[in-house]
Amino acid sequence: MKWIVGVSIFVATALGWVATTTIPAATITPDEATLKYFPPETEAIAFVDVESLRDVPLVHDFMFQGPVTSVSPEIGGFVDSTGFDVRRDLDTVMIGRSGRDHLVVASARYDKFKAEQFLKDKGKDPETYLGRSIYHDNNAAIACLDGVILLGTDTAVKKAIDQITYPGALQLRTDLLDSIRTIEAGNQVWAVGNFSAQDLPAVAVRETPVLQILKTLRHGTYQMRIDKDVHARATGDFDDAESARNLSDMARGFIAVAKLQIAKQQPDFLQLLDGIDVRSNGSSVTVRVDESGDLLMKLQKARLQPHQLGQ
């Protein structure tokens, strides 16, 4: 069941700015219907509005480049058995982390009976918990509810069922809800919460000065809006101002060196780098990204061309 959309958390921070004559941007309203599955100890939340993204031409071109069944035999088998197409029938994905436990809540239009039959045919015997069937797939636990699929660790899936079963179950912490309310309306992808180096892809690479700084990351937000272009802003708070300043300096230095190396050979990539701005303010760092959709499509086509020629 690896087809569930994943989200990687970016490092970043908030840049304070003043515009006394500007009307503040509208912010999102937390989706209580989905947030109810997450226990109060949840430390971080990420969200993807798949339904909204597939209506954006820039994203649509990427999503529908080939048949979903070609991704893997496992996904192909699931599609053939249930008729479920993640690109067409998946509406939203919300991911939460509580310590080592992770929970994915996917809102989707699917045939619950066919999905459970597919799991049974794969030899996944259900465990009944509070009247719900939980299937175990390697290290993951899966529960198929009406219009919702729960996927995560066994503990996380059971806690989600607890949350919707017991009246008066405690909800998310106020500070996490407050962070969600800072996300500007119109962003189809966002993430908020307390993060550590273990949440970042960098830890899987190797020990570097950057990784040492990332270990001081404590809290952050990320939001991305895709229309005809791509607009993203990541914010992250660190233990101290020195860590934030050093990370910001390293990032700007890397971008400056990259610009010098590709200025003549690859002007399109130079324009891409021009769309990235990194700044520090106290113990926080801000990363802003504004990229042309036309440029991204041009680079994507250039990347695919050698492969297509090889065919």
Structural account:
This protein is an alpha+beta fold and 311 residues long. The protein has two domains: 31-173, no CATH class; 195-304, no CATH class. It is 36% helix and 26% strand. It is built from twelve helices and twelve strands. It has helices at 32-35, 50-53, 57-63, 73-82, 86-89, 112-121, 154-165, 174-180, 209-214, 241-262, 267-274, 293-310; strands at 44-49, 90-98, 101-108, 127-129, 132-137, 140-145, 148-152, 189-194, 217-226, 230-238, 276-281, 284-291. Strands 4-5-6-7-3-2-1-8-9-10-12-11 form a twelve-stranded antiparallel sheet, sandwiched between helices. Helix 10 (241-262) runs antiparallel to helix 11 (267-274). The chain is globular. Mean pLDDT is 84; it is low at 1-22 and 306-311.
What structural class is derived from the secondary structure elements? alpha+beta
Major β-sheet profile: 12 strands, antiparallel
Give helix and strand order, one letter per element, not per position: HEHHHHEEHEEEEHHEHEEHHEEH
Number of strands: 12
Number of helices: 12
Gross morphology: globular
Uncertain ranges? 1-22, 306-311
Rg, alpha carbons: 21 Å
What is the percentage of strand-forming residues? 25-35%
Q: Give the termini distance in whole angstroms.
A: 30 Å
